[in-house]
Amino acid sequence: MRALFLVIDLALELYVWVVIAMAIFSWLVAFNVVNTRNHGVAVIGDFLYRVTDPVLRPIRKRLPNLGGIDISPVVLFLIIVFIRYVIELYILPNVY
Questions:
Q1: Would the CA dihedral through 64, 79, 20, 49 be positive or negative?
Q2: Residue ranges per domain, the chain?
Q3: Which of 47, 50, 52, 68 could in theory staple to 22 by disulfide, Cβ–Cβ 3.0 to 4.6 A?
Q4: Residue 91 and residue 86: Cα distance in Å, rounded?
Q5: Whole-angstrom distance, CA of residue 4 vs CA of residue 47
Q6: How confident is the model at residue 96 (pLDDT cuts 50, 70, 90)?
Q7: Distance CA 76, CA 19 (A)
């Protein structure tokens, strides 16, 4: 059982890095640093969008409109940190 929670914790940590990669990628596209007409860049962008958007979309719906600023990744980070904190402090010490 402990191994299952450790795998969940690892998956959450990896997902945080994927969300960071998506945020950086979206900034690079917005500032025309990378060209999405390049096939490799388009594939990476499509992958990052498909992996992160189903989780970020419900958060975006509940947040107020802040103009061009998207703080949904920050809210997602806080949620993931809370889940990891609960797993580490409350669930793992009680699992043998």
A1: negative
A2: 2-94
A3: 52
A4: 7
A5: 26
A6: low
A7: 9
Q: What is the pLDDT of residue 80?
A: 96
What single-letter DSSP state applies at residue 33?
Answer: S
Summarize pLDDT for 53-91 with one digit per residue, the tens: 999 999 999 999 888 889 999 999 999 999 999 988 888
List CB contacts of 48: < 8 A, sequence separation 6 or more.
Answer: 18, 21, 22, 25
How much is the CA Rg of the chain, to the nearest whole Å? 16
What single DSSP character describes residue 63? S
Q: In whole angstroms, give the CA distance from residue 96 to residue 93.
A: 8
- 43 pLDDT above the threshold of 70: yes
Which residue is associated with the tokens 């990669």? 21
The single-letter code of the amino acid at 33 is V
Distance, C-alpha 7 to centroid of its chain: 17
pLDDT band at 2, cuts 50/70/90? Answer: confident
